[in-house]
Amino acid sequence: MAFSAMNKSSRQISAPTRKAEVRAFSRRSRGAVKVSATASSQEKHLGFETMRDGIKVAAEESVLSPRFYTTDFDEMERMFSLDINPNLNLAELEAMLAEFKLDYNQKHFVRNETFKDAAEKIQGDARKIFIEFLERSCTAEFSGFLLYKELGRRLKTTSPVVADIFTLMSRDEARHAGFLNKAMSDFNLALDLGFLTKNRKYTFFKPKFIIYATYLSEKIGYWRYISIYRHLQRNPDNQLYPLFEYFENWCQDENRHGDFFAAVLKARPELVNDWEAKLWSRFFCLSVYITMYLNDHQRTAFYESIGLKTTEFNQHVIIETNKSTARIFPEVPDVENPAFFKQLDKMVVYNSKILEIGAMDLPAPLKTLMQLPYIERMIAGVFQCFIASPLEAGSVDIAPTQGELVY
Ligand SMILES: [Fe+2]
Ligand SMILES: [Fe+2]
Question: What cofactor(s) does the depicted protein rely on (predicted)?
Fold first, then answer.
């Protein structure tokens, strides 16, 4: 899971459920992260706040930061009920469940002794941007864990096969989040994920939006991990930290998760087959692509530290994700039209102006006033991307008379 969204309404999930999830997480990720008793003063110099020794205060949420999600679980139950939705291909879902049960990565996430030393060698600005990268990635993975775990729990009675798939996907995300949090502890700053579970806001998305958004976030996650992995295989001198060596198998988890959501979309023709579905497809693609582009360009230093060119890397990931998405979404943005990335590059400039003004030592109302023209241009930019001619896509059509799926 690696997406952020524009919808800001939120609601909390009940505390007992969340407690159970955190316990399950601890079991899956083999216990809580152990952090050295005294946080080194170095981290304080880097400007990070700690809530106690070695435990970092989570970064403040913003429009672009990873979020936790919740949904209408009753509607999800109806969505996966075979009685209501006979299009659900149970044989396909059972085959997917069997594959998840094989647990290809059961023995993959085992750390070695090189982690701690490699972290010690990363100093100065690079250290700070590494910690930020690990925190964002950990939060995004943990967000997936919470959502899938809850879905696994809630769908148990109506759709046991789907429930088991969600539970096994939450197993994968728990491993990913745990591995990243352990990596943060190499830098003497881990996250208290239990605290975060109880205290972070949950953004509410209707089930169909959860399906679009999670599909995209899994696929973009796959392309991000595999692209970083392949780049570092070609340029081993930039392999500053052993975490990236795990990305090849790791990204296959994300790919499998994405394929599951593709199967769900195929089973619900109304999610991929009318004008409304086309608009939402385009909207979610653009939200995910633009958010990543702006986020990563805000953190160019990180990508450069491992020898990647931020713009090239982002454009490659977006183009590839869009190709995967075009196989299932009915419409996708035309990202290979040169105007698209030109527009995104302009938005990067406006975004950096907004951040620059935000960091000035001036009264807040004055800063807002100064930011307004750039905010307006950002909104206009998003709108331009939205109204640009999209690409017709998708692999599923409904035969108009029978209402059956035709591939
Ligand atoms: Fe993951
Ligand atoms: Fe995933």
Answer: Fe cation
